Predict the 3D structure of the following.
Amino acid sequence: MKKIIILTLIIGLIFVGCSSSQDLKDNKIVITDALLREVSLPQYPERIVIAGKQTPMLANYFYMFPTSAGKILAIENRSQSSDYFLKIVDPYYEDKLILEKGAGVEQIAPLEPDLVILKTSMRDVIGNSIEKVGIPVVYVTFESVDEIYNDLQIIGSLLNEAEATERIINGYRKAVNEIHERINQESSEENVLIIQATSDDQQFAFKVPPKKWLQTWMVEDLKAAPVWTDAASGESWVEVNIEQIITWEPGTIFVINYQGQSIEIVESLVKNEVWQMFLAQNKSIIYPFPYDFSSWDQPDPRWVLGYSWLAYKLYPDLFDIGFITNTIKEFYIDIYNLEESYIENEIVPTLNPYL
């Protein structure tokens, strides 16, 4: 039996490849996490807690793997609106424990989890405290595309799902490569602005993402020019005003809102006198960034939908609406095993205003 178990683990490692974050030492499972720490586990975890910042995003990545639903014990409540989505993809969701926002070791330790999953930024916040009481913690990053691929390998190793890991990562790479092949020698030659916008009684506030973040990478990878990068050299969103936006002279503007209000905000902006004049003089086009269960601009599993949608908007001669609707269907069928009829009746209609 011992030989069979070891052979199975070795086969699993072969599936993931040389870059796998999993190893075997002294008959234990050893995971190399995003902080390059070796975390030793006596067996594959069956009681996993996902906590800290961006737990909906982390949970969404876990649910890409078939066996994850039965292994997630608790999730911290930090949702944009993804609880509804988790109920769709997890048949055991009603049995999950939902931790209060900001849950610490005093809430997590009594659950006696096998493992806690945290973003790397949460190590000093709660991670160290959890480790001190003897609970293993594995850290993930999920920021850049390369980090997404690496973190997916970490999750796949934890769940002993090497084949699913390979399928998921190859699916992402295939989607990106197909877009690269279409644009090939083309260039949008477009000055692009991505802004996060909020509105309070017609008083607008704007922020731009750091130049190292996924939003910037998407624009650059699609051969367009992100106009905001000189003002965004830090590690978090940077506040900007309309005067700064005007000086950038963006040809295409994409508006993000993490409460799902990007359509309403764009409608308000095009009615605003200052914005009307700016858009007309600059001949700028403004679009709301898509949002179904969450916004597509983030390093959430849906980043590939946001990337594909940007390609569709920046290269209208190369991508049509059929391309993006097929991309949406393939994503939710292949990744989350949703029925095509559900996608067509429940998801695509909510996205039509963005398409």
User: Anything to note?
Assistant: The radius of gyration is 22 Å. The chain has 14 helices and 14 strands.
